[in-house]
Amino acid sequence: MRNPRSVLAFVAATALSPSPLQAAPDSGPPIDYPGFLHLSNEVAMVRAERLIDLAEFRQRAAKSGTLILDTRSAAAFAEGHMAGAINLPFSDFTDSKLRAVIGDSFDREILIYCNNNFSNNIRPIMTKRAPLALNIPTFINLYGYGYRNIYELGAIVDLYDPMVQWVADDRGA
Questions:
Q1: What DSSP letter does each residue of 111-157 carry, written as one string?
Q2: Contact between residue 165 and residue 82 where contact means Cβ atoms under 8 Å apart
Q3: What does the alpha-carbon distance between residue 162 and residue 134 come to, in Å, rounded to a whole number?
Q4: CA–CA separation, 85 vs 83, rounded Å?
Q5: Which residues, in sequence order, are bridge partners of residue 118?
Q6: Which tens digits make up the pLDDT trace of 115-128?
Q7: pLDDT of residue 25
Q8: 39-72 pLDDT, tens per residue?
Q9: Which of 60, 146, 148, 171 is the most buried if burial means most Cβ atoms within 10 Å?
Q10: Residue 3 CA neighbour count, 13 Å, CB half
């Protein structure tokens, strides 16, 4: 049988230790996985109500002040993107960079799309695994940074559909 004192010491030590999902204070980078899960759950209902078809996406895009945000890499964006889209790669999201692209209003309407919205699976829109589609973390992060007027293309469309209005930069492939 184990020494009851050592069992109590072990229980006390583990009770005071942070869970593997939380970093101990001052022990590592500021990463909050439980906070991310909480935010993701909060966003789930909002996002479900903000999935729109291509016709509504184009209609909203035509409104003054609406921003189409493409968060794919700069290289993929240069190879092709929706007409009128602005690029800010997801990996570059910070308060200051988002504010520089979106502006000072957290109420500005933002439209997002990603590779998985297109059925073609060709460069520059190669399909990703569905749970890893860029729309998901983009929506969560925009919401987490305080932007609440987000709409996401919720349809799978053909890149060559005239309503898509796909363009490539001169420096694209």
A1: EE--GGGBSS--TT-PPPPGGG-THHHHHHHHHHTT---EEEE-S-B
A2: yes
A3: 23
A4: 6
A5: 157
A6: 999 999 998 899 99
A7: 56
A8: 999 999 999 999 999 999 999 999 999 999 999 9
A9: 60
A10: 4
Can you state the angle between helices 33-49 and 135-144, rounded to 10 degrees?
A: 100
Contact residues for 155 (Cβ-Cβ < 8 A; gap 6+): 52, 53, 54, 57, 117
User: Quick check: 141 and 88 in contact, CB under 8 A?
Assistant: no
Q: Note the pLDDT tens digit of each residue in 4-33.
A: 444 334 334 434 444 444 545 566 788 999
Question: Prior bond to 20 cis, omega within 30?
Answer: no
Question: Which element (helix H / strand E) includes 69?
Answer: strand 67-70
Residue type, 119: S
Q: Which residue has the tokens 């800010």?
A: 88
- Whole-number Å distance between alpha carbons of 111 and 58: 10
**Token reading at 104:** 């000072």
Amino acid at 15: A
pTM of structure? 0.81
Instruction: Report angle CA 80, 97, 165 to the nearest 5 degrees.
Output: 20
Distance CA 78, CA 81 (A): 7
Secondary structure letter of residue 172 according to DSSP:
-
CA 127 to chain centre: 16
CB 146 within 8 A of CB 43: no
